[in-house]
Amino acid sequence: MAWYEEAVFYHIYPLGLTGAPFNNDYGETVHRLNTLIPWIDHIKKIGCNGLYIGPLFESATHGYDTTDYRMLDRRLGTNDDLKDFVRRCHEKGIRVILDGVFNHTGRDFFAFKDIQQYRENSWKKDWYQNVNFWGNNEFNDGFSYDNWGGYNTLVKLNLYNPEVRNYLLDTVRFWVAEFDIDGLRLDAADVLNFDFMRELRSLANEVKEDFWLMGEVIHGEYHRWVNEKTLNSVTNYHLHKALYSGHNDHNYFEIAHTIRRQREMGLGQGVHLYNFVDNHDVERIYTKLNNKAHFMPVHILLYTLPGIPSLYYGSEYGIEGKKERYSDDSIRPKLDLEELERQDNQYVRFISELGKIYSEEADLWYGDYQELQLTTTKYAFSRNEIIVTVNNADEPASFDLNREGTYIGVLSGKTVSAENGQLHLQIEGNSGEIWIPQK
User: Fold this and answer.
1) H-helix or E-strand containing 174?
2) How distant is the alpha carbon of residue 372 from its chain centre?
3) 68 and 118 in contact (C-beta within 8 Å)?
């Protein structure tokens, strides 16, 4: 079995967490990455054994407008700092994946600067998609080009060009050799060239055993990306939406339907999508929930539904973060770990408990999913022998399930025995339980 199939990920946006300035003046190197070393113990303590951290490499602003793929952003430190950080993670049993921003670069990238200087005579004019020397843009370059998302600061690479593909593949080889990383999260994978992703998959199989490729995909049929020839996994935005709206709308049918639909697409047993309730692009889950008490059942589902659970830094403490129209600062904040750890925080205790349970129960990694009971407010399912029950109503809920034997509720410590083939389970309002059969 691959390591990532048994992983719980912690997700860090490093420029935000370290308080780096938004704009890179390409001046003095500041070793902010080293301030994240204490977070490694925290990540381990709450039960995570994987870290997705990025973007990391030299860029002009937010990290996704790359200037240099082979140099740690000077706002974070040096390549030696990153090498040491990954080594420390590995010593604690934490695998590390980075952002691979291969769909586009920033305007300060060497190939784009070459086109600005030499125009039609540039040896890099075919490195970008649809460069038009008869066009122009808001920067008055005297040429136009394709971009990502309508932003001319994100210049779309021409991944049909073998020279570009080889440069990026060599970059991945460099990252593995230099930093010993364990995988990549591919930015904007939903618009990434499929031939390039197939080449990446071939490379992944060469550079390191179980090197993981996970893609950022929002909409669409996930099986187009997740298969033996392209990616191992994608971001499960379908389930992300269902998890918060299924609670806000008191509609567990939405969550159950999402799981059914993904299994119909061939994304069932043996496929491990990357599950999350928030990240660096969306509002914090605590902000999204109309009823803050739903934090508990939401996270029980995150850890027990099929897939790989992931936590976004700080959300384990139940912090707020609202997405603004022109700024992501509130969802990518600087945090003081010492200050957070001084709190008697019920949320981080709960997350740590879930992490411990997850690490001990292989059925939550590989167990087949079976829906057992479903209403708008009650949801029960099994992962092999484990039973999960959640309730989004304010009042208690009862579940009567066809089961034999005795079960222990590992969150509450309750023990319940079946009678005449019926297991009667009582769940408090806005809560849930994970039931393990007594050995």
Assistant:
1) helix 162-179
2) 28
3) no
Cβ(215)–Cβ(185) below 8 Å: yes
Read off the pLDDT of residues 2-56 as tens digits, 9 standing for 90 and up.
999 999 999 999 999 999 999 999 999 999 999 999 999 999 999 999 999 999 9
Can you list the residues of the chain whose pLDDT is less than 70? none
Q: Can you say whether residue 5 is alpha, beta or left, with left for phi > 0 and alpha for psi between -120 and 50 degrees?
A: alpha
Q: Which two tokens stand for residue 88?
A: 């420390």
pLDDT score at 267? 85
Q: What does the DSSP 8-state code read for residue 74?
A: T
CA distances from 416 to 38, 300, 304, 358, 420 (A): 41, 19, 20, 21, 13
CATH class of the 369-437 domain in this structure: mainly beta
Beta strands in 177-307 (DSSP E): 183-186, 212-215, 233-234, 274-276
Tokens of 406: 């005795």
CA angle, 263 then 266 then 271, to 5°: 85
State how far the Cα of 164 lies from the Cα of 173, in Å rounded to an integer. 14
Question: What are the distances in angstroms from CA 56 to CA 27, 59, 225, 312, 422?
Answer: 17, 8, 24, 16, 53
Neighbours of 363 (CB within 10 A): 15
Tokens in use for 195?
A: 């031939």
Q: What does the block give as tokens for 401?
A: 């399930």
What is this structure's pTM?
0.98
pLDDT value, residue 428: 98
Q: What is the second-level CATH architecture of the domain 3-105+156-366?
A: Alpha-Beta Barrel (3.20)
Which stretch of DSSP H or E encloses residue 409? strand 406-409
* Same fold: 3-105+156-366 with 369-437: no
Alpha carbons 96 and 390: distance in angstroms, whole number = 32
- How many CB atoms sit inside 10 A of residue 342's CB? 9
Domain-by-domain residue ranges, the chain?
A: 3-105+156-366, 106-155, 369-437
The two tokens of residue 230 are: 């392209």
Which amino acid, residue 239? L
**In this structure, which amino acid lies at residue 413?**
G
